[in-house]
Design goal:
single chain, alpha/beta, Nucleotidyltransferase, domain 5, 5-stranded mixed β-sheet, 5 strands, globular
Amino acid sequence: MATSQPETTPPGRIIDVMLDTETLDVSSQPVLLSIGGVARDAGGSEVLLPTEFHYLVNIDSCLKAGLKVSGGTIRWWMQQSDAARQALFAGKSSPLEIALNRLTTWFHAIRGTMTNKDQLQVWSYGAAADIVWLESAYRVIDQRHPWTYKEVRCLRTVVELAKQAGVSIPERPSGMVQHDALEDAKYQMQVLEAVRHG
C-alpha cells in the first residue's frame, strides 16, 4: 500500500537590499551626503520590487542634528573624481529627516512585496560603516531604522571569504562612477550576486 508523502512547504525568497552612503566623516556619526540602495530577489523571480533608492542629503540639516565632519574626509573628497563630486553637489538635496523618511518608505514598499516566508537581507560594504552610519542618523532624529539586527549582513566579510576560496570577484564596470552612493550599491550588488552564484 502506497503511503502519501507529506507536502513540503516551498522555501521563501531571499530579498537582498544593498545600501551605500557617501559621508563627510568616517566616525560613528558622520554627516551624510547621499544614500543609495538597490533591491534584488536573490532567486531571480519575477516579483517586482522597488529596485532603487537614491537621495542627496542636505549638509546643514545633518550638522544641526549633531552629525560630524572631519577635515581628513573633506581633503579625501577633494582628491576624488569630478564626476563623483558633481553627483553629490550638483543636484537638489533633501533635509536629513526627509531623506531617512523616504528610505523607510522604500523599505516598507519592499516588505510589501514579501510573504511571511521570505527573508530580507540588508547589506553594506563593512560591518562598521554604512549601516552603522545610517542607524546613527536615525537615532539623532529620534526614529527607528527600518531593518532589524538579524537582517544585517557585511559584504566585505563575504568578499574576503570568497577570495580565500578562490572565487573571482567581478571588476567594476567602466563608466560606473566610483563614490556615487547608487552606483556603488549597484556594483556591490553585482559582487554579491557573483559570489553567491559563483
